[in-house]
Design brief:
Layout lengths: L1 E2 L3 H18 L4 H8 L20 E5 L1 H4 L4 H17 L3 E4 L5 H16 L16 E2 L19 H12 L4 H10 L12 H28 L1
Helix pairs in contact: 4-6, 5-8
Length: 219
């Protein structure tokens, strides 16, 4: 989960989380190929997408605070998060524990990934509302400011974000030194999401163990 109320830490936090997840995964080529199948063969953006090694949901928390920001700030944040979510073939949605509808939406999305519940069909790309963009439903051409897509586009988008919202490197460094896992940060506690996260952690552990056993048998 990303804290939408702390724009000066959001990008660094996101990169740290993604890097940490990647380091914890070890997938065979077969599994990576299977993950690529999450993208429809006829999706126009398929050549420019780089699916994350595991199904990914990017949740922007504290939306109740974020929605009070200036429109231009909200637009830039939404544009950048939509872009990286689309590149990684992730689901993006904003969340507030104070909004029952958003709580239900997050629960539906996580239930889909944890228990194979029906896929969320709601799509909202309007930065004036709580964004909800399911995996594979976006288009680069519909993201404002994205004219062409290359392997360097992610760096450009990072530059766009950090230019408008300089990242507090001192806080990032101190956070990493104290505890690299935001799950242990009381500022990120959300009972519903924490419960489902624990479920996914257990499934991920079993999945990684199964992959290790398969790789050993194939040797």
């Amino acid at each position: 989960m990303l804290d939408l109320s702390e724009l000066g830490q959001l990008w660094n936090c996101m990169e740290s989380l993604l890097d940490g997840i990647k380091r914890s995964l070890s997938l065979a080529n077969q599994q990576i190929d299977e993950l690529a199948q999450r993208i429809c063969d006829d999706h126009p953006d398929r050549p420019f997408m780089d699916p994350f090694p595991t199904p990914l949901v990017i949740i922007g928390g504290k939306y109740d605070i974020f929605q009070e920001y200036e429109p231009e700030k909200r637009k830039i944040v939404c544009r950048c998060l939509r872009y990286i979510s689309h590149v990684l073939c992730a689901t993006l949605l904003f969340y507030s524990s104070k909004d029952a509808a958003l709580v239900k939406r997050v629960k539906d999305v996580l239930n889909h990934h944890a228990f194979d519940a029906p896929l969320l069909k709601t799509i909202c790309q309007d930065y004036n509302k709580a964004v909800c963009v399911p995996c594979g439903s976006d288009l680069f051409e519909s993201i404002e400011g994205v004219r062409t897509v290359t392997k360097h586009s992610l760096d450009k988008m990072r530059h766009v974000y950090t230019t408008h919202f300089p990242q507090d490197e001192s806080k990032a460094s101190s956070t990493i030194l104290e505890d690299p896992n935001p799950v242990n940060d009381p500022n990120f506690r959300e009972p519903l999401i924490d419960a489902l996260r624990r479920q996914k952690d257990e499934e991920l552990e079993r999945y990684c163990q199964e992959m290790e056993r398969r790789e050993k048998r194939s040797l």
